[in-house]
Amino acid sequence: VSAMTSISEVFRALATRLGAERIERDVPLAPMTTFRIGGPAALLYRARTPDELVLALQAVRELGVPHFLLGKGANILVGDGGFRGLVIRVEVDDIDFLDEATVRAGAGVETFPNLIDATVARGLGGLHHFVGIPSTVGGALWQNLHFLSPAPARERTVFIEEVLESADLFTEDGERKTVGVDYFEFGYDESVLHHRDDVVLSATFKLEPTPLDELRRVMRDNLEWRDDRHPDLWLYPCAGSIFQKIEGIGAGRLIDECGLKGHTNGGARIFHKHANIIVNLGGATAAEVRTLIDLAQSTVSREKGYDLVPEIAFVGEF
User: Fold this and answer.
1) Of 312, 160, 157, 133, whose CA–CA distance to 226 is shortest?
2) Could you give phi then psi for residue 312, rounded to 5 degrees?
3) How far apart are CA 8 and CA 15, in angstroms?
4) Beta strands at 76-78 and 313-315: parallel, antiparallel or unpaired
5) For the chain, what percent of residues have pLDDT higher than 90?
6) Whole-angstrom Cα distance, residue 46 to residue 232?
7) What is the pLDDT of residue 220?
8) Are 147 and 155 in contact (CB under 8 A)?
9) Which of 2, 98, 140, 174 is 20 to 30 A (C-alpha) from 131?
């Protein structure tokens, strides 16, 4: 495949594996991300079942085709030049209740609202803490989805690993297997998936029967907490926190102390409520966002002596 000189050649090679009718060409990626920024995917394949996801992964690995897995499109910035390769859109969206308190969800299921709504409707708690956070199940395990619970007198960070029972993977070794929680080596914004080319096919969660009024109260409190600090994605598309957490001080606080909160570059702005978030005011480009990222990094390094490390992934050509 290193000898392939055009997307047309890549398309023909993939078509023999995935079917020409299933591969889309020159697909805008911006609408598939929470930032609403970025150029097109040269090729895109929608994997709707675990078998289709495995088939696509086998094809790109064996052919050596540049590829990227796309779920909800949160925590990423797609370059203005798009992605020259195959974007695999993970649309494995089955939700199955295995017993009164156990649910299995495909990697492409949106944790909010779909999975949370389905579990809360059955009076099951555990996933309800993550209300309002854009993610798919696969993405949630990749980053160990978490939320700082604002509950009075017991504020703590809740992690998705606390309710995860097992997950079905397609490993970097080409094996399909079921693993337990320990396999993921979870940390803060961290999992083994950052270091191995393993892909989540589905995950099984063990939840707790909980009174519905309690579930709704926690969800309401959590949404109010987020509304005070985070952008409404309908008004201010964004990718969440731009930089990794700095223990004891916070990246957003450092940026704020440097006077950069509200700083604007073209259609991109450092959010006025939370300086570790950059929002799209409308029509922002990836280049404009990168300029703000560079500004925050250089200013904080010069004035505060801290190095800001991006938390989001940069996808495609910049």
Assistant:
1) 133
2) -80, 160
3) 10
4) parallel
5) 89
6) 28
7) 94
8) no
9) 98
Report the alpha-carbon distance of residue 51 to residue 33 in Å, rounded.
24
Sequence-ordered list of residues with C-beta below 8 angstroms from that of 307, at least 6 positions apart, any chain = 297, 300, 301
Structure tokens at 135: 């993610």
* pLDDT tens digit sequence for 154-176: 568 899 999 999 999 999 999 99
Residue with tokens 């799209």: 280
Residue among 250, 269, 255, 266 nearest 299 (CA):
255
Query: What does the alpha-carbon distance between residue 153 and residue 220 come to, in Å, rounded to a whole number?
Result: 17
Contact 38, 78 (CB under 8 A): yes
Place of tokens 């790109």: 60
pLDDT of residue 3: 46
**Residue 255 in tokens:** 């940026």
3-state secondary structure of 101: coil
Cα–Cα distance between 50 and 91 in angstroms, integer? 9
Among 270, 269, 267, CA closest to 283? 267
Cα separation of 117 and 128, whole Å? 8
Report which of 283, 236, 219, 292 is spatially closest to residue 80, judged by C-alpha positions.
Answer: 283
Strands 83-90 and 40-47: parallel
Q: Where does residue 118 rank: exposed (0-12), middle (13-18), buried (19+ CB within 10 A)?
A: middle
User: Are the CB atoms for 43 and 84 separated by under 8 Å?
Assistant: no
If DSSP states are collapsed to H, E and C, what string results for 207-252?
CEECCHHHHHHHHHHHHHHHHHHCCCCCCCCEEEECECCCCCCCHH
Q: What is the rounded distance in angstroms from the CA atom of residue 9 to the CA atom of residue 243? A: 38
